[in-house]
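Section handout, structural biology tutorial.
Before the tutorial, make sure you can parse a SMILES string by hand: atoms, branches in parentheses, ring closures as digits. In the record below the ligand is pyridoxal-5'-phosphate, and the chain has 419 residues. In the tutorial you will relate the predicted structure tokens back to the input. Do not try to memorize them.
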Amino acid sequence: MDHFQLKEGVVHAEDMPLSRIAEEVGTPVYIYSRATLERHARVFREGLCAAGKVHLAFAVKANPNLAVLRILANQGYGADVVSGGELERALAAGMKASDIVFSGVGKSRAELTLGLDKGIGQFNLESEEEGEMLAQIAADRGEAAPATLRVNPDVDAGTHAKISTGKAENKFGVAIDGAPDIYARLAKLDGLNLRGVAVHIGSQLQSLDPLERCYFRIGQLVTDLRKAGHAVTHVDLGGGLGVPYKPEENPPSPMDYGAMVARVTKEWGVTLMFEPGRVIAGNSGVMMTQVIRVKPGVHSDFVVVDAAMNDLMRPAIYDAWHHFEAVEPNGEKMTASIVGPICESSDIFAREREVDQVKTDDLGIFRTAGAYGATMANTYNSRPLVPEVLVDGDKYAVVAERIEPATIMAAEHVPDWLK
Ligand SMILES: *Cc1c(COP(=O)(O)O)cnc(C)c1O
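Predicted structure of the complex:
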């Protein structure tokens, strides 16, 4: 359920007609709905009620906008961060340091130190080497860093290869077979308070089966670690729950997920941690674009829009599908490819698809763009960086400005010796 609905012939975000945002802010633009974000945050939490004591950390990389993070902080969410920059954002948005988990396969010495300086709640270690580095930095300061060891369970998440993270060939975590030995060596280090394990097998999962297989293996590992004399108090079960990009898709609900988690983890006796990203933010945002012109093609027409792959990269890099709709539909359909102005053949949002009929200057939206949308935007082809708007009932605010090419050029320098 989301709050982007057609009312009196115009798609609204909550009570705000999107045509008004186009007039006042311009296009392309991302639009988020506060009520939808809050609803998803609440539904996810309620789904996990059955699982006992839980800690929820929003995966910042899915949508790092400060206003979005503030909404989730107010919903009691912490943050799962994967860089020093995301760590600073989570704090700036009002998240408590103790509610921040630091994931990522390449945390640098500077980033580990930043995490300790800020007193974050947990480091999810992705290798023995990283654990040794963190232990040394912390021990030198007379501290013990709270940490878990991220395990790679070798489970096929059944999702797109580029967003799969839990197979043996993926770079994430340590192989589950070797985990007990690594855990034992890291647990001895003075600078670490190793308190459990973490796992995250991929994103946009369409079935609970791989997650259940993964969690079952993690349960066996927890038992083995305890037998070896380790105290295991925290298990981080990651994120990954999918969202419907197409009307006919029906990914598992947070309720079904919570029931599965409760069943599999019943005997664990730990604080469970979760890192949802897409399931919270995905349907909470759309990207609005304006049609520049319709160009006849050999197989079907091309609708050339003012948004491009730099604004929404998912179709180009993951073959992702975003549902397209006219903001003021006339009831007619057309078969067309929807493309951006960038000089790359991968700058295509929809291929010979039946869509709402549109013509020059009409507005359209790509749905389910609230996660991995604006956060991946760039300025390729010297295009502006796309702005973001947050709607709350009948008001809105620009929560990220459009950054014009002139601003970006101002940070570039031609050296004197070229003059
Ligand atoms: C990306 C990521 C997540 C969030 O994944 P979603 O599919 O958006 O829920 C959670 N944890 C880690 C470690 C990640 O890298």
